[in-house]
């Protein structure tokens, strides 16, 4: 994996991420395909209507639904799904956290939400799952903590996350030595709640980790900021990013996990974040909330029943180019599944256009103006 920092405008960064399945320009938003599919869309939609160069898939769900051996036999997720772009997979730690998994020093024990069967994720186990998926970018197993949390628990989370990251890096280095052509790359995850002291401890501990195997040095290919959007307010999130991102290597990509709103993304880009994912665009689409340059609209409202115009006149998506608010209102009110597809295409294209516009502004060194225009349109 190669990451080139193309330009900076203040702390905002424009980069180029070169992976086995194509080049990704950053800042980038990754549509979420939890079970190997973006709900309501297929690989044709992703390639042609979204032009998405990287998506996120979920280790926990693919492990339970497909399994390691079956995924290997089917040639990994790229072949299985037909998606030819890049795939980032999380470690499954968030799902184990949200389902009340029991943490131990060796890993996380949890019950399947499907059939109640018991499972145990360790740092090496989640990497084995991601190797079978053949993820372009793999996340280490981390110990996520909900907020607010006691200081003792946050410190435990940082220490455990660092230990698991070290075990993950050692295991990954061994696999790379055995098979140097492996296309899989490994990101660490910074924890620490909203406490600058523990964020600093986590970042410094992870960035200092390195492994030497048979004379070859290995380090993490990128760094994620995890443990946010789990109960804290937006200002706390931004303050946490202010103290965390300067501690991360300038020559490695920075990924903010599970965030968020368009405003969150713009604010985080300004603070030096390169990569994002969130279920918000597709989840809100299915519920009838559509994002636009002027804010958002609830398509179920009767006011749209006779509006023969696109969702957003500034949008170039397939939906806006071909269908009216009135038609989408009708589909939603009629509970037609086609609405889910058209609304998801629009919301995801909006997010992808947003980060694409931010990148262009950074390259032109006018990100501050871009941000002001973004807020001005939404307040008008």
UniProtKB/TrEMBL annotation:
A GO MF term: tRNA-guanosine(34) queuine transglycosylase activity
Binding site for substrate: 90-94, 142, 191, 227
Name of one Pfam family that matches: TGT
Enzyme Commission identifier(s): 2.4.2.29
Highest taxon above the source species: Bacteria
Gene Ontology annotations of biological process type: tRNA queuosine(34) biosynthetic process
Active site, per annotation: 90 (proton acceptor), 277 (nucleophile)
Cofactor(s) required for function per UniProt: Zn(2+)
Annotated catalysed reactions: 7-aminomethyl-7-carbaguanine + guanosine(34) in tRNA = 7-aminomethyl-7-carbaguanosine(34) in tRNA + guanine
Alphabetical list of InterPro entries matching this protein: TGT, TGT-like_sf, tRNA_ribo_trans-like
Lineage, uppermost ranks: Bacteria, Pseudomonadati, Campylobacterota, Epsilonproteobacteria, Campylobacterales
Residues covered by the tRNA-guanine(15) transglycosylase-like domain: 11-378
RNA binding as annotated region, ranges: 258-264, 282-286
Protein name: Queuine tRNA-ribosyltransferase
Family to which this protein belongs: Belongs to the queuine tRNA-ribosyltransferase family.
Cofactor note as given: Binds 1 zinc ion per subunit.
Role: Catalyzes the base-exchange of a guanine (G) residue with the queuine precursor 7-aminomethyl-7-deazaguanine (PreQ1) at position 34 (anticodon wobble position) in tRNAs with GU(N) anticodons (tRNA-Asp, -Asn, -His and -Tyr). Catalysis occurs through a double-displacement mechanism. The nucleophile active site attacks the C1' of nucleotide 34 to detach the guanine base from the RNA, forming a covalent enzyme-RNA intermediate. The proton acceptor active site deprotonates the incoming PreQ1, allowing a nucleophilic attack on the C1' of the ribose to form the product.
Pathway linked to the protein: tRNA modification; tRNA-queuosine biosynthesis
GO annotation, cellular component aspect: cytosol
């Amino acid at each position: 994996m190669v990451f080139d920092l193309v330009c900076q405008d203040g702390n905002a960064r424009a980069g180029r991420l070169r992976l086995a399945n194509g080049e990704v320009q950053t800042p980038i938003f990754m549509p979420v395909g939890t079970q190997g599919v973006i709900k309501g869309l297929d690989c044709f939609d992703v390639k042609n209507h979204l032009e998405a160069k990287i998506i996120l898939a979920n280790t926990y769900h693919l492990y339970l639904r497909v399994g390691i051996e079956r995924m290997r036999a089917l040639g990994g997720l790229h072949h299985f799904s037909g998606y030819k772009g890049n795939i980032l997979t999380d470690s499954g730690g968030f799902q184990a956290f949200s389902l009340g998994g029991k943490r131990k020093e060796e890993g996380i024990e949890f019950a399947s939400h499907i059939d109640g069967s018991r499972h145990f994720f360790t740092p090496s186990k989640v990497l084995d799952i991601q190797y079978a998926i053949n993820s372009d970018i793999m996340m280490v197993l981390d110990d996520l903590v909900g907020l607010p949390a006691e200081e003792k628990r946050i410190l435990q989370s940082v220490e455990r996350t660092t230990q698991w990251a070290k075990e993950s890096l050692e295991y990954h280095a061994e696999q790379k030595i055995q098979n140097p052509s492996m296309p899989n790359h490994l990101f660490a995850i910074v924890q620490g709640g909203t406490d600058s002291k523990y964020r600093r401890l986590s970042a410094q501990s992870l960035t200092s980790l390195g492994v030497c195997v048979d004379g070859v040095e290995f380090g993490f290919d990128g760094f994620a900021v995890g443990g946010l959007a789990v109960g804290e307010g937006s200002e706390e999130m931004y303050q946490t990013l202010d103290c965390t991102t300067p501690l991360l290597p300038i020559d490695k990509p920075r990924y903010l996990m599970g965030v968020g709103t368009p405003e969150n993304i713009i604010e985080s880009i300004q603070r030096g974040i390169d990569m994002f994912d969130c279920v918000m665009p597709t989840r809100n689409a299915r519920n009838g909330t559509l994002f636009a340059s002027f804010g958002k609209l609830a398509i179920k409202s009767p006011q749209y029943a006779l509006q023969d115009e696109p969702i957003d006149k500034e949008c170039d998506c397939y939906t806006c180019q071909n269908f009216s608010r009135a038609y989408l209102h009708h589909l939603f009110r009629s509970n037609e599944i086609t609405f889910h597809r058209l609304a998801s295409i629009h919301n995801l294209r909006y997010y992808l256009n947003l980060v694409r516009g931010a990148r262009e502004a950074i390259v032109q060194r006018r990100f501050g103006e871009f941000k002001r225009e973004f807020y001005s349109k939404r307040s008008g």
